[in-house]
Design brief:
The chain has about 200 residues and is an all-alpha fold. It is built from 10 helices and no strands. It is globular, with a radius of gyration of 19 Å.
């Protein structure tokens, strides 16, 4: 997935000197918790390494949650800004992914409540075009899925985007949302059933 240009605000700049390349590779081998603590201590490049590691899945989840590319890029950017602001209070307990995706989902919820986000999504769907009949069919199916996702409740949509957008397992979803694994499975089952029903009606 190509990254939206607006993410350049928080995306790391490419290394320009050999010493920086050595440091870059050294940082890439660190855990998320270690990078957060190094970033908090002021080590140059530590937070950039976190962005490089997580920017694509974060943007992918945002797109699936919101169904609109430009708004999702804003949400992804805001997520990393919020993560940066959270550095002073971060506690390293091996739960960075849950911490990051809680921030992301909160940003998605705020954007979802915006009337402008709904209008943008509708405009994008109504103005979409494709060159060939097969391409049109694929595009329309994808649009139907995105629209169906938007019609799910927040609770159901969250488990879907974490499972299929971030490739989280049931335990990771439960940890992120603060719910038991059994609840995750029930919500995912309900979400699939509702999506199937809505797509059959489309």
């Amino acid at each position: 997935m190509a990254l939206h240009p607006e993410l350049a605000i928080v995306m790391p700049a490419p290394a320009e000197r050999a010493p920086r390349l050595v440091e870059h590779h050294h940082l890439e081998g660190r855990s998320d918790d270690e990078l957060m603590l190094l970033a908090r201590s002021g080590l140059d490049g530590a937070f950039d390494a976190l962005i490089r590691r997580h920017q694509r899945p974060v943007l992918r989840v945002a797109v699936r949650y919101l169904g609109e590319a430009a708004l999702s890029a804003d949400v992804a950017q805001n997520t990393f800004v919020a993560l940066l602001r959270a550095l002073p209070d971060y506690r390293a307990h091996g739960q960075f992914k849950a911490f990051l995706y809680r921030i992301l989902l909160n940003q998605c919820r705020m954007a979802r409540r915006s009337e402008r986000s709904f209008q943008r999504a509708l405009d994008q769907a109504s103005n979409a075009t494709a060159a060939g009949a097969h391409e049109v069919s694929l595009h329309e199916h994808r649009r139907d899925v995105e629209q169906a996702l938007l019609r799910l409740s927040d609770k159901l949509r969250e488990v879907v985007v974490l499972r299929f957008g971030a490739d989280f397992n049931y335990d990771e979803i439960g940890e992120t949302l603060g719910i038991p694994t059994g609840t995750v499975k029930r919500r995912l089952f309900s979400a699939k059933a509702k999506l199937r029903e809505m797509l059959e009606e489309a």
